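Supplementary notes for students who missed Thursday's class. We covered one full example, reproduced here. Read the sequence, then the structure, then the short commentary at the end.
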Amino acid sequence: MSAGAGTSWLGRMARGLVHGVARFYYPRIEVTGAVPEDGPVLLVANHPNSLLDPVLLGVAARRPVRLMAKAPLFTMPVFGRIMHALGMIPAYRGSDGGGRAEVKKNLESLAQAAAALGEGGGSVVGIFPEGKSHDDVQVALVRSGAARMAMAAVEAGVRGLRVVPVGINYERKERFRTAVWIQVGAAIEVDALLAEHEGDGRAAMRALTPVIDAALKDVVVHLEEAQWEPLLEEVEGLLPARRGLRVEGVLKLRKRVADAINHYHRADRARAEAMAARVEAWRARRQASGLPADARFFRQPLARRLVAVAWDAVRLVVALGLGSAGLLHHLVPHGITRVVAARFDHPGRVTVALHRVLVGVPVYGLWYAGVAVAMLRYFMPWVAVTWLALMPAAGLCAIWVGRRLRVVLPIWWAEVKLLLQRRRVVALRRERAELVEALLAMAADFPGAETAGREVERKLWRPPLWVSGVIAAALSSVALVVGGWLLRDRPLEWRQTDAPALHQLEPAVLAERMGADERGLVAVIDGLADLEARFRVFEKQLHAGERSYYRPEDDDEMRRMLVSYLSLRQALLRTVWRYQRYAQVGDERLRLRALLLHYAAAAVVYDYSARFVLAFEGSETAIRKLNEAEPRWGVPAGVYDRIRANLANIAHRRWLEAGWRHYHETLPAWESVGLGPGGEDVVAARLHAAIAEAGARTAALSERILVYKVATAMSDAKAAVGGSYYRASAAISTLIGDAKIRAPREGKTLVTPELLERLQPLLQPGDILIERRNWYMSNAFLPGYWPHAALYVGTAEDVRALGLAEDPAVAAKLAEFAGTDAAGHAFAVIEAMSEGVVFTSIEHSIGEADAVAVLRPRLSVEQKRTAIARAFSHAGKPYDFDFDFFSSDRLVCTEVVYRSYGDMLEIPLVEILGRQTLPAIEIVRVWAEESVRADAGEGEGADAGGQFEFIALLDGDEEAGTCTWADAATLRESLGRPALTWFN
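Structure (token representation):
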């Protein structure tokens, strides 16, 4: 075999492939120690896991390794070629059936391997001196093959040869996704060993075999007597591994326990056997309790166990969905792999993992390919790609869930039973504690115990003190900057400069203007009082359940009051701004009038800001509504928060307090010119009364400034986080909403142009369209068969014919509505989609659907005109991905219908996931229930026919691939159809 046998492109590819498979099967592989990076190296390793051991030996070496493997493997199709490509050397064993001839061939193989050690300046050869795989927790008889190979290499002229022991320790070698610890021991210098025996190769060879045996036992979890294995497992449970990687905690602990057992059976067998008897007695009682060896029941208090149980339950519930999908997808290849691989397994566990890998790789590969072909024939490509990309993770999740359930369910059941057996629990815990104490005492006497203890501890890098100080200072500075910014003063909307130069006006002109402003200020004060009284009535009706923020009319009434308040507040701020340069007025009486106007407006605006904030304080629902933007009314977002922030402005508060002192100092001057509180000037007296009332009300407000600052800061932080969350959820919802999982019939929907042409003459402005588009992923997340609703408003000519062209809401958008869509079709529908509330054509809205129902509200033409105008007023709003009818600044599809018709139709909202909303199917349900009552003769007069008239149903049948004209009975039947099936 050439020197490049293991380094050819095929060899490199094969090596990378098998290493990748091994790392996938055993994802937690830890290597301690290192194989020399150059020179000739003979690796000698234990052999517990058939052909996976050579692969892991290559992983640990980080160099191409030429290994000896049993000769029959080289005759296997494909696999034998891969072994040759990897540079492996056949080993001929008498046990393979060839007798002396096989032994002779094996000597030739050993010579070939010895020669390979000297190739290329020194290469790596691996051998398993035990000769064959086994399940025992011990190193089997080490044969002389490795020593013969080493001496043959030296005789062939190889210099600097090192024999390196490698221990391969598995957590559970037969189990998928478990841990492996590979410990590389100290190298044995062959030249030095030969020198010790004065160049006698035979003597050195005989000495090398026991040295290899001892070196292997030092790097392997080895018990001198295999019957001690149960003892090893029980002691592992009694002395659980420290926190850290599972491979580091469990396997290294297992090694130390095994070494201790060996030591005490050699050094003090009586003590060891006495301890073994105690452990065995404990094991019997522990097994009778139903708990595993390392059960937390014995070492944790109840509170910690409950937290652990809760955490396990949460993780299992979270992983169950993905794990169920993974189980469903992998059940067939998993079963095939297990059944077929088991037919080839040798007795024990030495070939379980190997055969599962060899069978599983092609089986799973073919299964994934088959699923891909099947899905691509049925679903859209993105569905197949997404599914197949998720399934490996889902399969691993299923494995974790299954294993975790097998572990925790028996433990939970055993713990529940033990909770009712207090005396037994106390006795078990006392016995365990005494046993652990005795084991720890023995461990303390074990040579090298301190070193072993240090080995398992995780080394943490502790930064210098100055680094910690710099990091702490930086974090504190960021916190201070962010906190300072959040707690900053928020200015009022009026400007402090560029106010009118009052002194430049003629006294007569200024007096006339102030007279008008005084009357206007009194009117504003009266308007605020009336508005407050109006609000108190509204508030009582809210508490009585007579009004609701969810009703469009009540929402509009709230908006009207808010807009009125903002308008009156703006008038007050304008007065404050206009008269801030009062001191420049020369005439004393005019100057005092200007000051009174200025201060009265400031006091009242502060007073009514406080009233506004206090009125809604503590009502998160009301605050949320007041902070909501509403383009129809010109209301910006965050009104309540902004006014509350103005109140918390310390500079404004100080200015007001200074003004209050100045006001009292100026009272005699006002009295002297007849403008005092008790004077004959009625307007001035009214303004003084407003100032006094404001002063009394706002004096106590100083205690709440800090509260308002903190509340404003929290609101800003919440808005920032909420905004990011909403944008993320909107992106995900848009992706889901626009994603189609299938596109049969080359993407053509079931509603044909002929059906649309037949339906169009039946439509009238104000009709409600209930629609379904099959195969959209969003259908799975919406209740019922009908997921979408839209409002047919007619063409631009129809809108003008209804006399709506002059309506402000319609006129602002009529030019846009009179246009066409990208395909040149006229707009006729208003609906909310992921893009927002938009104008669409019937060719798009109905013609691209698979089923459509048309319901006509039994309302007058005037009522429908009002509804259509309202619908136009909502056009342009964004889509509400929260599906919450509380807010009106963003709308979902059915909300366009709901808010357009308002109290003209009684369509109750339903609560879904804690939010009031209206699925499209609820509109159909209301119609169906009313039509059933009408058919039964219930109801009188106008109510006899219900709120809706059935106009048409285009009923799509995805399985048949057709859409037919259907009747009202079919629409009622559709209420029982599922949202998503294999056929739609």
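Commentary. The longest helix spans residues 302-344. DSSP finds 33 helices and 17 strands in the chain. If anything here is unclear, bring it to office hours.
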